[in-house]
Sequence to fold (234 residues):
Amino acid sequence: MAQRHRRRFLRNLFLVLIFSLILWYAEGCPLPTQEMELHRWERQRLAPESTVVWSYQGRQGNDRDMLVGVSPDYVHAYAENYRLTLWPRSGDTATLVVLPDRTRYQDKASSYLDPALVAVDPPPQAESARLFLDFSLRYAGTTEEADPAALTRVPAPTYTLEGDRQEGAFFFQLQRQYRHLGGENPTEEEQLLTGREDDIMAFLELEEPRWLSFSYVLTFYDSDGDLLETVTSP
Fold:
């Protein structure tokens, strides 16, 4: 009787292991930690192994975890089971990168997912940071505007973001500023602004260093509010 129970136990254990192995393989053979996953993606890209300087854990079930690491020449921005982007690392100033996936934030009673950015290698004395984004480049010279004077009449959206110091880097959450514009009867200009913002939010997370569609000014300040460093877009 004891031998029969033992055989049944071993058989069930074997089946559980086989089923777990099948699930593990179906999910892409995930490694135990996100940092190990990042390094596996780096090896697949033939990129040097990075040192993680910033991390993000999704707040709800469908949110992706993210890591940002640095190697001598690059900043590695990784989103869980999704994407790894390599940004050229500045050797003398801070480097601004767009995260490869959206992050969640709270706005009044609701939470939203929108793009975010991280600045690595800030000045050691930096206690605060500010980021100004200008998306005029995305619309200048395009033929998508029904009215050629639309860009002059309604300028492309700009955003001023306050940085949140996290793990030695500064995090910037981009939040929609035209979400509730115009109510139920928006004007033509309000529709144009909200449409542009939808476009920006949809494509910003796909940004890569070789085709930035925005310009920026990144500034860092010490505890007394004195300017330490200014970084502008290439």
In short: Helices lie at 2-26, 34-44, 136-139, 150-153, 188-204. The two ends are 76 Å apart (CA to CA). The chain has one domain: 27-232. Residues 19-31, 142-146 have pLDDT under 50 and may be disordered.
